[in-house]
């Protein structure tokens, strides 16, 4: 089914469409959430809240504002960040593991054929440190371009071209 | 606008990341609608990012979907679906069978009605033809009666009573003789029905010498209802007689079976 049609149905509160969209993006969201909270049980808890929220907020999504995937990604990242900033979380998780998403992928035994495990693993093992940083901030942490520019201490133009080259490499490995 | 330069600028990667401002997002969306190559680029970036982020997921998440659906109050599938389908099937089946039975009875009833109506039509047709015959008969009777009335009123008609003779003294008849038209009307009301194989024969008589002339036999005596018969008579008759003769009539009257006789009174 066309993604646009699926999203229209979802906005019209079609339960089947919601389930299909869940299956399309749940792995990505759980990965991103886990990358932030670094606790499987908490990640699952946040994930559940995220998709309940998505169902209730379906009216607020508009394709003009961005990709549907990006919309869900934003909600997931924000929910995960809210979680680690909460008092309850700070008490139990004082020291967060400082590994990047790269380390998670490299140590991930749960990768199946569908996610193209070999391709992604090959990709991350070859990634330069600066590529790792930019992808981590832009996709996993939800930094804006100016926030990323500030954090990495480089001009916005450099962030854009570097990120483009990193993603281009990823596309070559996983999409071909 | 240089599409290629726009694509290679890296803005689309930031668009998928959600790192652009709201205004920039709307610009990219507008360009995507206009240029299919930009849309294609965005779709490929998105697909790659979906795969990359999914690779960081370490656990199966099917149970989370269950929790979400439960929390949102979705119907849980399989068991409910089966129980929903079954009564639907039964409802349709029962209705279908009921409809068939009703239809079958309806057809039988219609066929029966048709038979009944056809038989009614036949009865009506028979009654109609009977009535037509009766009307025809009535008309005929009326015409005959009218003729009789004219005859009885006519001055030129002679009325000759025929008296019973010998063994048949109780019988009688009357002759109305229309000389002008050369015909007689015989009123044979006073004669019994002739026995099987016999007929009445009407005679015109000359008295001196006695010469009988046959005016014919009355073959339909029994069937006739008013017993009035119109008979042609060209003779200059002096008397009329009626005898009983074998079927077909005789050349001369059988005098033993002379029933009635009457003389024409002159003047």
UniProtKB/TrEMBL annotation, chain A:
<dbReference type="InterPro" id="IPR013325">
    <property type="entry name" value="RNA_pol_sigma_r2"/>
</dbReference>
<dbReference type="Pfam" id="PF04542">
    <property type="entry name" value="Sigma70_r2"/>
</dbReference>
<feature type="domain" description="RNA polymerase sigma-70 region 4">
    <location>
        <begin position="125"/>
        <end position="172"/>
    </location>
</feature>
<keyword id="KW-0238">DNA-binding</keyword>
<comment type="similarity">
    <text>Belongs to the sigma-70 factor family. ECF subfamily.</text>
</comment>
<dbReference type="InterPro" id="IPR014284">
    <property type="entry name" value="RNA_pol_sigma-70_dom"/>
</dbReference>
<dbReference type="GO" id="GO:0016987">
    <property type="term" value="F:sigma factor activity"/>
</dbReference>
<dbReference type="InterPro" id="IPR036388">
    <property type="entry name" value="WH-like_DNA-bd_sf"/>
</dbReference>
<keyword id="KW-0804">Transcription</keyword>
<dbReference type="InterPro" id="IPR007627">
    <property type="entry name" value="RNA_pol_sigma70_r2"/>
</dbReference>
<dbReference type="InterPro" id="IPR039425">
    <property type="entry name" value="RNA_pol_sigma-70-like"/>
</dbReference>
<dbReference type="Pfam" id="PF04545">
    <property type="entry name" value="Sigma70_r4"/>
</dbReference>
<dbReference type="GO" id="GO:0003677">
    <property type="term" value="F:DNA binding"/>
</dbReference>
<dbReference type="InterPro" id="IPR007630">
    <property type="entry name" value="RNA_pol_sigma70_r4"/>
</dbReference>
<keyword id="KW-0805">Transcription regulation</keyword>
<feature type="domain" description="RNA polymerase sigma-70 region 2">
    <location>
        <begin position="21"/>
        <end position="88"/>
    </location>
</feature>
<dbReference type="GO" id="GO:0006352">
    <property type="term" value="P:DNA-templated transcription initiation"/>
</dbReference>
<protein>
    <submittedName>
        <fullName>RNA polymerase sigma-70 factor (ECF subfamily)</fullName>
    </submittedName>
</protein>
<keyword id="KW-0731">Sigma factor</keyword>
<dbReference type="InterPro" id="IPR013324">
    <property type="entry name" value="RNA_pol_sigma_r3/r4-like"/>
</dbReference>
From TrEMBL, chain B:
<dbReference type="GO" id="GO:0016989">
    <property type="term" value="F:sigma factor antagonist activity"/>
</dbReference>
<protein>
    <submittedName>
        <fullName>Anti-sigma-K factor rskA</fullName>
    </submittedName>
</protein>
<keyword id="KW-0472">Membrane</keyword>
<feature type="transmembrane region" description="Helical">
    <location>
        <begin position="91"/>
        <end position="111"/>
    </location>
</feature>
<dbReference type="InterPro" id="IPR051474">
    <property type="entry name" value="Anti-sigma-K/W_factor"/>
</dbReference>
<dbReference type="InterPro" id="IPR018764">
    <property type="entry name" value="RskA_C"/>
</dbReference>
<feature type="domain" description="Anti-sigma K factor RskA C-terminal">
    <location>
        <begin position="98"/>
        <end position="254"/>
    </location>
</feature>
<keyword id="KW-1133">Transmembrane helix</keyword>
<dbReference type="GO" id="GO:0005886">
    <property type="term" value="C:plasma membrane"/>
</dbReference>
<dbReference type="GO" id="GO:0006417">
    <property type="term" value="P:regulation of translation"/>
</dbReference>
<dbReference type="Pfam" id="PF10099">
    <property type="entry name" value="RskA_C"/>
</dbReference>
<keyword id="KW-0812">Transmembrane</keyword>
